[in-house]
Amino acid sequence: MWNVPNILTLCRFLLIPAYLVVFEAGYIRSAFFILLLAGATDVLDGYIARRRGLVTDLGSMLDPLADKSMMIAVILSLVFSQMISWQAACAMFLRDAGMIAGSAYFHFRGKKTVPANAMGKLTTVLYYVAILLIIFELPYAHAYLWFVISVSILTSIIYILQFNLLHKRAGKPQSLDKPR
């Protein structure tokens, strides 16, 4: 149950308060580098888990929870520091909170969840770029953020469709024909 990838995921949870403390202390760019470290542990734990056959149900549930929890902490820090609008924060927060709630709900009901796909991973990278643009006050940062929010909503719709397809296939009755 507790293996290297899951321990890396646990470390990512511990980076959330570290990010918040550093951000709140006014070291916003340093906080961004803590966010990058969290992203690196995400990549590393996924790589190790797949490469060494260490994918577990616990890791499959905790990994996206750690990612979404970090993103919610980042959203809150950016909105409270007035670096992003509350409308953008609400759109991002509702999407991530919905993903966490939906994943937890289905996990605890014994249903399979849809693993991260290329669109989900691309969305995460796009969010990191948007945060970089905002923190470093680069041009078009807020327009780009809204583009990423749109992509993330599209990605969520794709996940919902994949989830429905997965459970429609799983719910089909097996043939009653007996081999002769």
From TrEMBL:
Keyword Cell wall biogenesis/degradation among record annotations: no
Gene3D superfamilies listed in its UniProt record: 1.20.120.1760
Swiss-Prot/TrEMBL keywords: Lipid biosynthesis, Lipid metabolism, Membrane, Phospholipid biosynthesis, Phospholipid metabolism, Transferase, Transmembrane, Transmembrane helix
Keyword match Nucleotide-binding: no
InterPro entries for the chain: CDP-alcohol_PTase-I, CDP-OH_P_trans, CDP-OH_PTrfase_TM_dom, CDP_ALCOHOL_P_TRANSF_CS, Phosphatidylglycerol_P_synth
MF (Gene Ontology): CDP-diacylglycerol-glycerol-3-phosphate 3-phosphatidyltransferase activity
Major localization listed first in the record, in broad terms: membrane
GO CC terms in record: membrane
Domain of life: Bacteria
Pathway linked to the protein: Lipid metabolism
Positions in coiled-coil regions: none
Transmembrane portions of the chain: 69-94, 114-138, 144-166
Single GO biological process annotation from the record: phosphatidylglycerol biosynthetic process
Topology in the lipid bilayer: Multi-pass membrane protein
Matching Pfam families: CDP-OH_P_transf (PF01066)
Places the protein is found: Membrane
Family affiliation: Belongs to the CDP-alcohol phosphatidyltransferase class-I family.
Family annotation (PANTHER family): CDP-DIACYLGLYCEROL--GLYCEROL-3-PHOSPHATE 3-PHOSPHATIDYLTRANSFERASE, CDP-DIACYLGLYCEROL--GLYCEROL-3-PHOSPHATE 3-PHOSPHATIDYLTRANSFERASE-RELATED
Job description of the protein: This protein catalyzes the committed step to the synthesis of the acidic phospholipids.
Protein name, UniProt field: Phosphatidylglycerophosphate synthase
Organism this protein belongs to: Paenibacillus mucilaginosus 3016
